[in-house]
Design a protein that fits this description.
alpha/beta, eight-stranded mixed sheet, three-stranded mixed sheet, 12 helices, 11 strands, 50% helix, globular, transferase, Glyco_trans_2-like, transmembrane, glycosyltransferase
């Protein structure tokens, strides 16, 4: 089967060399792989590196470099999918590491009868320092990220969404392309439509890819806020594409606001109880996160990091919900113009 290996990137010149090495190392026959590289109008050397890779001969069926003038991720995937000629379309973020059997294991799973496949996606750091390792523990923890199966699942099963998925091309022909009005949540909405079109999404733990975490605490907070914000906005167009766990940080923020108002009215008991309960869980999850780890004093920051991530995500969702009616109205107005 011909595999279209699709990568979209914006200012990822530092990540591409490693990713290209991983693509070259794939044990699936290179003659049955086409590489589709989409540049989101980068301002660094991303496109130049893509072009250089396309000029090299590594035995691939073809290597194509395209531009995503709209810059947004959903539009980039649509550019790649439209240009793809493969029987299987495989999507990979540029900031990713993959083992040599990544393509072949996805193909094996598809050939077993599946239409959409994906696997585990552990987090890694580019540079192993005590502080970055602390951030890695926060992001890798269920308390700091989510309970999505693609993070740590160990059993083959059917799920609502996968990371770095492989799709039979017919899936997009039937379910349609990505919604270019969305950012961050385009996968959730796309996978929702794929399921509605009658396809199952297979999680296979034998398939694995690695995602680099943000390099700074500030970067992680910005990411969490953005994720939450887009969840709030996307509720206006596809409320069914999310799970309950997506709204836990929002519930926490709501609880803080409600008990805070009650405290201002003279009853501080509920706020104190909420804070005590959160601190207990926060400390417990921090201890679990550092178990069997070499000790660094930075680990003492974990409870505060967890709290900041939850607040950033929850506040982002709340603001997204507030902005959502205006955003939906703008989409409808732009569509009618």
């Amino acid at each position: 089967m011909l595999v279209s290996f699709c990568v979209i990137a914006y200012n990822e010149e530092k990540a591409l060399d490693s990713l290209f090495k991983d693509i070259i190392a794939q044990d699936y026959p290179h003659g049955n792989i086409e590489v589709i590289l989409v540049n989101a109008m980068s301002t660094d050397q991303t496109r130049r590196k893509m072009e250089h890779f396309s000029e090299e001969d590594h035995g691939f069926r073809r290597v194509v470099v395209l531009d995503n003038a709209k810059k947004i991720q959903a539009a980039g995937w649509n550019v790649a999918i439209t240009a793809s000629k493969g029987d299987i379309i495989l999507r990979i973020d540029a900031h990713t590491m993959i083992p040599h059997d990544f393509v072949s294991k996805n193909v094996q799973c598809i050939l077993s009868g599946e239409n959409v496949t994906g696997g585990r996606r552990p987090n890694v750091v580019e540079e192993e320092t005590p502080w970055k390792h602390t951030l890695l523990l926060a992001e890798s923890s269920m308390f700091g990220s989510s309970i999505a199966p693609y993070r740590k699942g160990n059993h083959k099963t059917y799920v609502k969404s996968v990371f770095h998925g492989a799709y039979r091309k017919e899936v997009f022909e039937k379910a349609g392309l990505f919604n270019e009005n969305l950012g961050r949540t385009e996968d959730n909405e796309m996978h929702y439509r794929i399921r509605k079109a009658g396809y199952k999404i297979c999680f296979n733990p034998d398939i694995i890819s690695y995602q680099n975490i943000r390099n700074s605490w500030c970067g992680m907070l910005k990411q969490k806020y953005g994720n939450g914000h887009w969840i709030g906005l996307t509720l206006g167009v596809c409320p069914g594409c999310f799970s309950i766990h997506h709204f836990v940080p929002l519930a926490f923020v709501f609880a803080l606001i409600l008990t805070g108002i009650i405290a201002l009215l003279g009853n501080t008991g509920m706020l104190v109880c909420l804070c005590i309960l959160y601190v207990i869980v926060d400390l417990l999850m921090s201890v679990l996160a550092v178990q069997r780890q070499k000790w660094y004093n930075y680990y003492l920051m974990l409870p505060l990091i967890f709290l900041s991530l939850h607040l950033a995500y929850g506040v982002g969702t709340l603001i997204g919900i507030i902005e959502m009616p205006f955003w939906v109205r703008k989409i409808k107005r732009d569509k009618n113009e």
